[in-house]
Amino acid sequence: MYLKKPIWSDATPENPSESENGEDSDAAAMVVEELVTSLNTQRLYRELTLSLRTGLRDACAEFSFLRIRGLRSLLKTLRSVADSDSTIRLFSHTQTITDLQLVPVLFQHSLKETEDDRVTSLDHIFSVDPMKITSPSTDAEVAVALRVLEGCCLLHPQSTLLAHKHGAVRVMMNVLSTRGVLEQGACLDALISILLDSSANQVDFGACNGIEEVAMLMRDKQADENLRLRCGEFLLLLVGHVNGKDRSPISSVNEDIRRLLGEKSASLIWAASQFGSTSDPEQRITALHIQAGRVLESLDLY
User: Where is this region: Disordered (predicted)?
Assistant: First the structure.
């Protein structure tokens, strides 16, 4: 090991042809490196599109167990995509291709409202063609579909526009008020992901009285404790995101929380949103959980 750079490393070659050969070899190495990078990118893109097509095919199936299999495959793909910026860019490109878009499939199948399945005609009884029967979405299917929606919107923010076109907020508020604890928890996480920087979805959230629905769940002492805690985390994230944005469609969220949860709980939520968060994801999650617990304690005192 040399403590100083060897004196011969700075020496110019006596033969000019050696210098030219060295430059040529460097240029060739750069070309080869670019080619390898390009081939790797193409390979990753092929693997990503294949994984998406396979998952989407099952997610469109008539039977719930097949749809769950497809949704779990898509969720696994999204988790792999989140590992690097390069794969996130590739995924974002796939979502500009209609056949590979996740959001429409979610709302046309797993998150399809049951009222859309009402029988409006009896013609199939008198025809020879068999009626196409689709099994209803199970609780597990809805929960996984919401996780896929959450991941898709976080990795590709433009997907929130597609979600708005399919009435995502209205569908999710229905899930929040009628489904079980498993789906409600996933719904709160997905809901915050589609509200971030999406004025259209925020307008829908206000029109659906979203704050009132979340506050009602949080005030219900008979509800699951973890779900109430998740409601507190949702409000903390929402206030932290909206704070300082006067033009936000839900800029009155602080006043709404004060009216629905009381002065003390609203003050705690507002104060928590004023402090910057650490860069460590685990510490952020821990801090959010603690703050939500304090808000819940303040609410239970009254």
Answer: 1-25
**Greatest Cα pair distance in the chain:** 95
On whether residue 63 sits in a domain, the answer given is no
Total structural domains within the chain: 1
Domain presence at residue 271: yes
pLDDT per residue as tens digits for the range 56-101? 999 999 999 999 999 999 999 999 999 999 999 999 999 999 999 9
Dump pLDDT digits (tens) for 25-36: 777 778 777 877
**DSSP line for 29-54:** HHHHHHHHHHHHHHHHHHHHHHHHHH
- Asked if residue 237 belongs to a domain, the reply is yes
Gap between the Cα atoms of 21 and 19, Å rounded: 5
The residue-averaged pLDDT of 269-279 equals 71
More confident residue, 247 or 105: 105
SS3 175: helix
In a domain, 224, yes or no: yes
Closest by CA position to 229, among listed 300, 174, 167: 300
CA distance 45 to 90: 6
Q: Report yes or no: 184 and 192 within 8 Å, Cβ to Cβ.
A: no
